[in-house]
Design goal:
This protein is an alpha+beta fold. Among the domains are: 92 residues; 174 residues, YVTN repeat-like/Quinoprotein amine dehydrogenase (Methylamine Dehydrogenase, Chain H, 7 Propeller), CATH 2.130.10. The chain is built from three helices and 33 strands. The chain has a five-stranded mixed β-sheet with strand order 1-30-29-28-27. Strand 4 and strand 5 form a beta hairpin. Helix 1 packs across helix 2. 29% of the residues are buried.
Length: 445
């Protein structure tokens, strides 16, 4: 082979080799590019999937929150509907109300639910109310018990025939038809007095101001007024009338008393209001208001309520004196079936009447009147009430072996069932004493 041909062959081989090398490089680059494209596609798909997952999760979260709100609103609506339905049924249906009181609200209680204080000598024992405690007075010793029948205090007082009144933390107690008197705050004696005359009535307000009605002196009646520390603020002499009741306003500004004058021809009742500040200064004009009661009505008791209104009970009506103006809120003269009435409540007065419910049965209807707005609430109990006791906003109806405790809105608080006849009831703040011959059972109200 000549030299030119040989050089051309060598050149051709070089070019062929170079072409193969370039082809490999291109192929590698192509593979890299394809791989990069695949990775980009995969990454793009991943990102889209992630976005889709986030979007799905957000949608699920929003739906979950919305569902929760719907569930909560639905639950509240159902509960409200059930409550409204129960209230309507409770108000409208007497049998349903009795069923719910007994089984749903657990208002029925019995001797098993009570705490017991044993009485050793019935004839020598007096049961004394005192706000949150019940006192047992025996042999000149007053023991006070809480609602759990735990003894809270023991106080020695020279009293065995008590007459008393209590309000808030104060107990004013005296020897009936004798001269000894005490003021007790919680478990301590604040003051004691030996008075001139015989105690026929005693009254205390929530601040410890005490009024005492005395007989057996040169006058028909003497009224003495003391402040919380036992300082005598005034002394009222009644030469021609008998004071039947007194009440002190809770702002300590006024003393009200009802007096009756008797003669051979007629009986006259007056209700008088005395300014305590003027009386302390021995002002002759201390009597700031006199109500001459018409129609020969007889006063039985008077009671100041918290807002300064004076509630007066007569044998024919219950009246309220406000701004020196009397107003009748309960008529007692036209209904011959009235068995009980009273004004010793925080803001109400009541009357209880017997109503026939069958040939040999009767019910007791209690009509409660709010002193402030004259709104009336009615509660009817099956059976005839043998006695009624009141304190604060509670009225206790003694039916013999059953006691119904109701509030001044006409709702049942508790129904107490006993296996034996109840002798008496005493009330305090959130406590009631059920009195028998040989024991006192204490329950929480």
């Amino acid at each position: 082979m000549d030299k030119d041909k040989k050089d051309k062959v060598i050149e051709f081989n070089k070019n062929a080799k170079k072409s193969r090398t370039n082809a490999k490089i291109i192929d590698k680059n192509t593979q890299k590019g394809n791989h990069a494209k695949k990775e980009n596609i995969v990454n793009t798909e991943k990102k889209e999937n992630e976005k889709n997952n986030v979007s799905i999760n957000n949608t699920k979260g929003k739906m979950s929150k919305r569902n929760k709100k719907i569930l909560i609103i639905s639950s509240i609506s159902i509960i409200a509907l059930v409550m409204v339905t129960l209230i309507v049924i409770y108000l409208a249906n007497e049998n349903a109300r009795e069923f719910m009181d007994k089984y749903l609200f657990r208002k029925n209680i019995s001797e098993e639910n009570a705490e017991i204080i044993e009485i050793e000598n019935e004839n020598n024992t007096s049961i004394i109310g005192n706000s949150k405690n019940i006192g047992i007075l025996t042999n000149n010793t007053l023991k006070q018990y809480n609602v759990n029948a735990k003894e809270e205090s023991e106080i020695n007082i020279e009293i065995n025939n008590p007459i008393y009144d209590y309000a808030d933390r104060y107990l004013a107690i005296g020897q009936k038809n004798d001269s000894k008197a005490y003021l007790i705050k919680d478990s301590k004696i604040v003051w004691e007095k030996e008075l001139e005359g015989k105690i026929s009535k005693i009254s205390v307000n929530k601040n410890g101001y005490t009024s005492i009605v005395l007989t057996g002196t040169a006058y028909k009646t003497v009224i003495e007024l003391y402040d919380t520390e036992g300082n005598r603020l005034t002394k009222i002499y009644l030469s021609k009338t008998i004071a039947v009741d007194t009440s002190i306003s809770n702002d300590n500004k006024y003393l009200a008393f009802a007096e009756i004058s008797t003669s051979s021809t007629n009986t006259k009742t007056n209700v008088k209001i005395l300014s305590i500040d003027k009386a302390k200064e021995e002002n002759l004009d201390a009597i700031v208001y006199t109500y001459e009661v018409p129609d020969s009505a007889l006063a039985t008791n008077v009671n100041y309520i918290d807002n300064g209104k004076l509630v007066c009970m007569f044998d024919n009506s219950i009246q309220v004196i406000e701004n020196n103006t009397p107003n009748t809120i309960i008529d007692l003269k036209d209904d011959k079936n009235i068995s009980f009435a009273g004004i010793d409540l925080s803001d109400s007065a009541f009357k209880a009447t017997e109503e026939s419910s069958g040939l040999f049965s009767a019910n007791t209807k209690v009509e409660i009147t709010n002193v402030n707005n004259q709104k009336k609430n009615v509660y009817t109990v099956k059976g005839v009430a043998k006695s009624v006791k009141t304190y604060g906003n509670v009225i206790a109806l003694n039916l013999g072996t059953e006691i119904e405790f109701i509030d001044t809105n006409g709702w049942l608080i508790k129904r107490y069932n006993s296996s034996s006849e109840v002798k008496d009831i005493i009330l305090g703040d959130g406590i009631a004493g059920i009195i028998y011959k040989d024991k006192v059972e204490l329950i929480s109200l």
